[in-house]
Amino acid sequence: MKRIHALLIALLIGVAALAGTYAATRTAHLGAAAQQQSAAVIKQRERQLARGEAALRKALAQSPAPAPAAARSAAATGAQRVVYVRPAPIVIHKRRAGGEYEAEGRDGGGND
Q1: What is the per-residue pLDDT across 72-83, written as a single tens digit (0 to 9) for each?
Q2: pTM of the model
């Protein structure tokens, strides 16, 4: 191998190593930023959920004693019940050579 070829290969490997190192550091940096951002998003969602929960508790306290949930849903939907019935199986019988009695012969002779 000529020296110029070896030099070019070494330079290409060096450039590839630098590009890989740069990409790895950028990825690690982006991962850290994403973790910080996700923590902030989680805190914001928790605050929203806490406000919603407080509003639901307030509405529950203000409403009169509600009927049980099962009774409300049955009355609202008309208590329709759905029962699934499987169809009868379709059986197809095909005669094939080598059946039950063909091995014994035509006379039906069995255990003599």
Answers
A1: 665 666 667 888
A2: 0.30
Helices (H), the chain: 3-62, 69-77
**Residue the block writes with tokens 């930023």:** 33
Rounded Cα distance, 40 and 26, in Å: 21
C-alpha pair distances (Å), 79 with each of 8, 67, 96: 80, 16, 52
Nearest to residue 99, comparing CAs of 86, 90, 88, 108? 108
Helix (H, G, I), strand (E, B) or coil at 2: coil
Could you tell me the CA-to-CA distances from 42 to 28, 31, 54 in Å, in that order? 21, 16, 18
Q: State which amino acid sits at residue 40.
A: A
Instruction: Copy the structure tokens of residue 21.
Output: 């190192």
Phi/psi class of residue 80: alpha, beta or left (left: φ > 0; alpha: ψ in -120 to 50)?
beta
